Amino acid sequence: MSNNKPMPVATEISAPFWEGLKARRLLIQQCNACNHWVFYPRRHCPQCLAHDLAWREVSGAATLYSFTLARIPTLPDFADEMPQKLAVVELAEGVRINTSLSGLAEEQIRVGMALQPVFAEVDGKGNRLLRFTGVDQDASALEALPGLEPQVEVAASDVRRIDFNDAAALQALVSEDFSGWSNVVLVDQALIDAFAELSGDDYWIHTDPQRARLQSPFGGTIAHGALVQVLQSRMKLDLGFEITGFATQINYGSDRLRFPAPVPAGSRIHARARVKSVELLGRGTQLTLEINTHVLGQERPSVINDLVILYRG
Question: 156-312 has which CATH code?
Answer without folding.
Answer: 3.10.129.10
